[in-house]
Amino acid sequence: MENEDGRETSRVNVQRKHKDRLFVNLFSYKENALSLFNAANDTNYTDIDNLKETLIN
Q1: CA 4 to chain centre
Q2: How many alpha carbons fall within 13 Å on the CB side of residue 48?
């Protein structure tokens, strides 16, 4: 399989349940959740106590 750059890539099939469980376990720690938020939003927040957890079912 090739990506849009024409480079060869490989695809690994992972069960959705396992990916979800890994994500939930990793980001259940506030430090990791804040790091993910900062990376996704190009921010540099450091005060973990201001982090509010919100779950969406």
Answers
A1: 23
A2: 10
